[in-house]
Prior knowledge:
Layout: H1 3-18, E1 23-27, H2 35-48, E2 51-55, H3 62-70, E3 75-78, H4 84-97, H5 100-103, E4 107-112, H6 115-119, H7 121-124, E5 135-139, H8 140-146, H9 155-170, E6 174-178, H10 186-190, E7 198-200, E8 204-206, H11 209-212, H12 216-243, H13 246-253
Parallel strand pairs: 1-2, 2-3, 3-4, 4-5, 5-6, 6-7
Antiparallel strand pairs: 1-8, 7-8
Amino acid sequence: MNGIEKKMVGILRTLRENYGVTAVKVNMEAEGIRLEEILRTKDIVLSAGVELTVKIGGCEALTDLRLSKMYGVNTVMGPMIESQFALEKYLAMVESEYAADELEDLKVVINIETVDGYQKFDQILEAPNSSLLTGIVLGRTDLAAALNLKDVNAPEVLSMAKDLFSKARKQSLTCIVGGGMSVKAIPFLKELKGLLTGFETRKVVFADYGKAETNMAEGIPLALKFEYHWYEWKQQYYGKIYNEDAAKMKSLSAQ
């Protein structure tokens, strides 16, 4: 491991031991993470003793799911679920790729991040295979944008979170708040006490909420520091690749 990776491992260990962090999340949907990045992330999370979550590209992103299985992912997340049919297709895909004993160790979650997804949530959970679902993540960034709101902590978003999580908890689902996570979200999170099982930044999952809630004012900035180092590592890695042939190109252009 290089120096940046060692910093990330150290931060993750501290987050796991003191702040309720359980996993790192990588995104094959909006961020389009590359396969080599997933491999390096897997190495980092194993060294830090946390799990790996992958947000796949859609409810039928079969290649993404197969890659996730190959990399030994602990949690798979289906994005932008807005209908019962979408959930049914997503869960059927997961069930087709994982054997029964493998499903025992896999967490299967979905993103609710649109007004349609929120309004149709009761209907969504009527999917005949919904027993495979273990949790939901509220994507506040997209939800707030759909409501034409600039603040992910707005009262309207909080009201929807309370309603959504109340229904989800009755189905024994885990409930995670995501999207625009910062220390400004702490009052929002505290308003969900009794419903919330965790929260996440773009890349860091705080799913041990009993430990996480005791000092979110320190834990969240530390998670964001981890993310900073992630992008620092990414720039260093691809910067080296970008520059490795510069001398050859200069020589060729002089011919």
